[in-house]
Write a structure and sequence with these properties.
CATH architecture: Roll
Mean pLDDT: 86
Radius of gyration: 17 Å
Order of helices and strands: HHEEEEEHEEE
Largest sheet: 8 strands, antiparallel
Distance between the termini: 65 Å
Helix content: under 10%
Low-confidence stretches: 1-13, 188-203
CATH class: Alpha Beta
Strand content: 15-25%
Number of helices: 3
Number of strands: 8
DNA sequence: CTTCAGATTATCT
DNA sequence: GATAATCTGAAGT
């Protein structure tokens, strides 16, 4: 290969970081969920590093698209990289669409902007970044304000475990987190967790 | 129209 | 660990 010395712009701001393209998101959802760990989510001047994600896939009873298109999940059928924002109780949560009807829930981030409120938890992440329902449908590969940039440092160890806060199909290992990161919303699953013999009420 | 459950979080014991 | 808050989307009548 040519010996050209790459003129790597070392701006202290976004050195080596590039915006994740539509192509990045147009891959299997689990792959995207893993690869998003360490990526940078920006809304204008505010930024976090993504440290925890969950995959919601086709034929997944826990997915909002399980029963087909509705008004709420419309943007989950948008092009890869589209932001799907929904409301749950008094907060909003954000997803990045991968393939048609599939998406990655952004569960936690590590603050990169000084003074940012805690982004640990899907609702808190949106609040910290100022993401609202009005941002539903934003196309992050091209949007001027909300964007996702590639990670700058190398890949780190990833913890995998069951998803959080859902009843149906919760045990599928579709939750991913940067191992040991303090901003993960709940402790990363290390091994099998012993269950109490007497479970909660069952129907 | 009515009913119901929820991809959460803060706060309590 | 358990629960109320709080309100909308979606499904049922």
């Amino acid at each position: 290969m040519a010996r050209h010395s790459w003129t790597v712009a070392r701006s202290s701001n976004s050195a080596g970081s590039r915006r994740l393209s539509r192509r990045f998101f147009d891959r299997p959802t689990v792959t995207v969920a893993r690869d998003l760990l360490g990526a940078i989510l920006r809304n204008g001047p505010r930024a976090v590093q993504i440290v925890e994600t969950e995959a919601y896939v086709t034929n997944d009873p826990a997915s909002h698209t399980f029963r087909g298109p509705t008004r709420r999940n419309r943007s989950m059928f948008g092009e890869p990289g589209t932001l799907y924002v929904y409301r749950i109780h008094q907060v909003v949560c954000a997803n990045l669409v991968t393939r048609r009807g599939e998406a990655v829930l952004l569960r936690a981030g590590e603050p990169l902007t000084p003074g940012l409120p805690s982004p640990s938890g899907p609702g808190r992440l949106c609040r910290a970044l100022g993401i609202s329902l009005a941002d539903d449908g934003v196309r992050t590969p091209t949007d001027p304000r909300i964007r996702v940039d590639s990670r700058q440092d190398g890949r780190r160890s990833i913890a995998v475990g069951p998803r959080v806060g859902i009843r149906r199909a919760a045990r599928r290992p579709l939750r991913f987190a940067l191992k040991g990161n303090r901003w993960v919303s709940r402790p990363a699953v290390v091994g099998n967790r012993r269950r109490s013999p007497r479970g909660p009420n069952r129907a």
